[in-house]
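We now fix the convention by which a protein and its fold are recorded. Here is one such record, which you should read through line by line:

>
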Amino acid sequence: MTYHACVWIDQKQAKVFEITASEADEVKLHDTRPIHHLHRKADHVGLGTVEMDHAMLEAVGKALGKAKAILIVGPGKAKTVLAGYLNEHFPEVAKKVWDIQPSDHPTDAQVVAAARTYFHKADRMH
């Protein structure tokens, strides 16, 4: 069965919603690495950031395998990191990404509702 998918992602977790007209199933994926405290130093560009967990990105790519269309949302740069990871490691999945949008920390129901609204409008264009 094909479905639309919406991924809400930040640095520590990803929620993959498989959305049909009447249902929405959710898969939660988490960064499983131990937490490290970063010490930032003045005048050092790039220090104080941690790369996203590649195992989590890999799991998201696999979870999106049967999606017809994909919307990626989330705060910060995590959504663009995911899109780049999909382009590099899952090129067939990356072709199905219709849009990448900023999003704060909505409830799961709000993510599903926004994705349904987006796909309803976007389906007319694709």
Remarks:
- Strands lie at 3-9, 13-19, 24-30, 67-74, 97-102.
- The chain is about 35% helix and 30% strand.
